Amino acid sequence: MQGSEESLLQLPHAQHQSHSASVKPDHALRPGALQMHIDYHETMKEGLKNLGLYQMVEVHHCQVDRELITALVERWRPETNSFHLPVGECTVTLEDVSCLWGLSVTGKTISGCTDDNWSQLILDCLGQEVYDGYEWDDNDFYHKKVENKGEPNEKVTILQNYVRLAWLRKKFANTDLDEVEDQDVIDQHTRAYAMELFGTIMFPDSNSSSVRLMYLQFLEDLGPRGQNYYNWGGAVLACLYRELSRACRYKASSINGPLLLLQMWSWTRFPIGRPRPHDLPSDNEPVDERRAYGAKWTIPHRWKSNPKKGTSHYRDQFERLKSNVVNWTPYRGYENIMHWHWIRDQAFFPCRVWCIHFWEVEYHLPERVFRQFGFFQAIPPPAPPAFSLLEDIRKWTRGRGLFGDGTSVDWSKHFHQFIVEPPQNFTRRSEHGQVYPYLPDRYHEYMKWFIHHGMLSVYPTQDNEEILSQTVPEQEGDVAGIGYVPDAMIQARLRFRQLKQTAKGISMVKTPGQKAFGLMMLENCRDVLSDLGQVALFRAMLEQAELPVDIRNIDISTDFPDQFPMEPRVEVPQTSMYGDMSDIFQSMRSIRIEGHTLGESGGLGDGGAGPSMANPPRRKKKPPNRYSDSKFRHARDREHGNEDEDLV
Question: pTM of this prediction?
Answer without folding.
Answer: 0.74
